[in-house]
Amino acid sequence: MYCQIMSKLDEVKEILNTLRVAMSLTFGMLIIVVGGIIKRFDENHVDSIFWLGAFFTVFLLAVIFLLVIKISQRTKEIKEL
User: Fold this and answer.
1) pLDDT 10s digit of each residue in the chain, 81 long?
2) Contact at 8 Å (CB) between 8 and 81?
3) pTM value?
4) H-helix or E-strand containing 47?
């Protein structure tokens, strides 16, 4: 019984760490894309690439939001174990 709880705990912790890494990478991509959008806007290059970047930014924000929800769920799962 104790080994099953510990193995489940280890599994949840590993998933939690993976989600945190994914969130960090997503934040990094968000910073790069927003920087590119700002640069294009400053240079008056508001074209299809600019708008693609803007939509991708919204997509990344949604992914970050979902990752935060998953991290919260996994953290609560650890507390229950």
Assistant:
1) 556 667 888 899 999 999 999 999 999 999 999 999 999 999 999 999 999 999 999 999 999 999 999 999 999 988 877
2) yes
3) 0.85
4) none
